[in-house]
């Protein structure tokens, strides 16, 4: 698209943008969370959610209510909204939506392969899959034994196919290899998505690129953190880092050399954005974890995305915010159902 | 009429409901719709209230009922809708009802589940028979194909080896067959090929008749497929792929006899299943029919019950926890009805202690209740759309009933158009009980709700049309014109008259394109036309000039009268709220300001109309110049309208100038004096809060009541109201702003009333254009073929008249009339800061099924 999205953006995408902004206004507010936290039982939670944008989504569930039903129903609701957006979108927004679903598809594929490894039935695993990343070929994933098999037989025609170029190998799929496969897929996915947004230019690039940069760097940190004490070599580790973030290239090289959390923190100290996040992480019981800090930062970026108009970032931001909200509600619901109220307040508030 | 002039007096009542009888009392109250409940538990979130459990139970019942309605609708059983609404169920029956419903639900779910299972079975069997029938043809073909396949391997040595190996190992040909969804065939085939690398043979045939999908119940097209393969490994993969694409796989018979046996077995089983399914369906239908009879009343009952519990959630418990305390607003006139309803409720529940009520004094502003009937409702809605009136203030709706249609008609003045509108409204009014009109769509409903407004608008338009003498842009000559053209001829006058005046003779008529009638010549103008404008003006070239002058002056006069009336209504408000000082310090200066400037303008207009006649019209001074000179005091002396005009105007100006400072400073200074000098006077200062009972004792009484009630939040509320700070600066600012607005508003609002003239001009011109462009063309064609052309012309004329002149112009005139009322009229006296009285009434519940189904 040419410069000046203001001129023609609304012709194709104005309706959807209006819609998504309306949906965003339906996110739970701080007051809602305060009320939710006070709930004694899941029934109370249901009653309170009825007064919010969720409406009667649990009306047809027979009691007793389980946390998993709340989760599924919330996901279904998000999925309905997303499908509506997607079905009414035009190019290039529809490609953008496809990119958005890819991350869920990757997760689903990996989940199913793990399930196959543990000899669980496909039906059982399908329930756990995220509805946004659902596709027909998915259920046949357990036929494959090597990544190239997987690619050739099953995923050739899915949007995931382009991300497979780097990870064609004949290794058998054991747990470590699956994890490596996931990270490689994710790396190429996030780089491709970044490139797409960059090429699109305009406000979309201005909004989406920082978000994706952050996402890439977060993955790099998390990969590093998770690889401590595993058999993954440092060279292998470096190949898994997405290269579209702010850390690229020096930061990633330093990260690859890091051997414990302290060294990782030292790498982050070079970057103004990540330094405060690492500093806020504490050891005590009430302190926040690194993951929480990343989530908080993500929420903040996504909320800010709504300050600009005429770009696709709002759709991405809305989906992510909604997901965070679902995580929050599920967290609160879990705390309530397990009578573990001490930590109930450690949800991530959406500003 | 009294009730429309001001909203009704309200009082705050406290109901002490014995906990045993609360439900019945509220049920009685809900049927009558007398009172509005106040939420006493505002800071308690919805799930922490007392009756959450009961509300939940109601919701559970609603869920079951919704399920019932859904099943009944699916079985296409008609749902009877009762006319009467059954009362809320007594508490004893609720449990019984719940049990019944739950039993019914369990039974229904079981039967439906069985039915679905049977149905699914049946479908599968049908699919199987279809598959067997279709694959029979495949086998013959595969047999035909096999030789070619066997000949194929020699081309490649490796595969030949493989092939022979497999044969040696005893791997035999395997078959998988089944049905697949039409849309998935292509992807299915592709994946099979990719996974099995071509070691399979797939054959397809489309099923002719579409079948129902056992899972979704959708009717779709299916493909029958047969996959033949060698080897265990591939077999597993094929099966997995079949699972992935949700194929319905059925065992494939290897021999012809087997196939025949299976087919026979299937047909008998299908027969059996059919009979069982029919029986189940019959039974289900019976159950549903029985349920359908009572489901309507149940739905209503549960709705009422839920409403009652929602209201009970707003009540607070007293200290002993024995009775509920509710606070309600109730119209004073209906207190005895409220008492009776409480007695009824107590009696019904058979409680030993009756529930009772007492009124409590309050300083809070009660909600506004204005009773309307079907005629006044539309007008009240126009006013309410601007703002619901403050408690007990003058309600402009009463006057709107006449002024609104009148101002509309001034802009819409046309006899014909008005009559069409009147007829349309009359049609709506006469058929107002027709059920289809009540349930029509949004736009039609809008017209329907405003039918009485439309009726009056039409009538008034007929009247103004008569005054303007306009009927579809043509004049109507009812009484004969009072202008005589023949009197202008020189032959009709005596010679001495001929010398004095400019008369017409043959040469004048022959050489002038435009002739002028002179009203000063005797006989030409024989006095005014009895009603409205003389039809002769329709022929005159200076018709517009004449009408413009008339309509402009008329709209200024109407506007000033309308606004002055608004200011006078303000006096009624001040009288009612016991603020006499406001009359002297605000209303009277406002009136003087308005009348001294604009009242004088009206006087000049009327004076000029009366005093100057046709003979003296040449020396008549311009009103505009006179009016401007009133402010400028020019040095040069003009004649003026009347002797002594200068002194009168000076006096008026002095009065105007004096009224401005009074308007600005009078009220704030007076209030300051009150505050300093005699603060015990105790006048409510800002806003129109209730001033009924606010002596010292009663305030203290209030306090004790609060302690009894034991509600902290309530106390806070009262304190907020009672502790009003006297802030001189704020009062001064408000008054100054108000005065500036008023003084400037007088000028701009007067100008704003000129829209009456502008719109009426536009309407007249537009209808004139329509006439000249269509009807005149149609009427000009010669007589033989003219009829043929005239017919479509008239049709087009009618359509355009309705859409452009009636709908579009009508809408614009309507909007302008609304604006004139809201802005120019109501801002003189109307605060409109009240809240509407919303009684707790079962009548407001929707008594339809459509809501629960959706």
From TrEMBL, chain A:
The keyword rRNA processing does not apply. GO terms for cellular component: endosome; proton-transporting V-type ATPase, V0 domain. Transmembrane segments: none annotated. Keywords: Hydrogen ion transport, Ion transport, Transport. SUPFAM superfamilies: V-type ATP synthase subunit C. GO terms for molecular function: proton-transporting ATPase activity, rotational mechanism. Belongs to the V-ATPase V0D/AC39 subunit family. Subunit of the V0 complex of vacuolar(H+)-ATPase (V-ATPase), a multisubunit enzyme composed of a peripheral complex (V1) that hydrolyzes ATP and a membrane integral complex (V0) that translocates protons. V-ATPase is responsible for acidifying and maintaining the pH of intracellular compartments and in some cell types, is targeted to the plasma membrane, where it is responsible for acidifying the extracellular environment. May play a role in coupling of proton transport and ATP hydrolysis. Regulator of osteoclast fusion and bone formation. This is V-type proton ATPase subunit. It comes from Vicugna pacos (Alpaca).
From TrEMBL, chain B:
PANTHER family: V-TYPE PROTON ATPASE 116 KDA SUBUNIT A 2 (PTHR11629:SF22), VACUOLAR PROTON ATPASES (PTHR11629). It is found in: Membrane. It comes from the Eukaryota. InterPro entries: V-ATPase_116kDa_su (IPR002490), V-type_ATPase_116kDa_su_euka (IPR026028). This is V-type proton ATPase subunit a. Its main location: membrane. Residues 94-128 form a coiled coil. It is a multi-pass membrane protein. One of its GO terms (cellular component) is vacuolar proton-transporting V-type ATPase, V0 domain. The keyword Coiled coil applies. GO terms for molecular function: ATPase binding; proton-transporting ATPase activity, rotational mechanism. The chain crosses the membrane at residues 406-430, 451-468, 554-572, 584-607, 648-666, 785-807. Pfam families: V_ATPase_I. Belongs to the V-ATPase 116 kDa subunit family. Essential component of the vacuolar proton pump (V-ATPase), a multimeric enzyme that catalyzes the translocation of protons across the membranes. Required for assembly and activity of the V-ATPase. One of its GO terms (biological process) is vacuolar acidification.
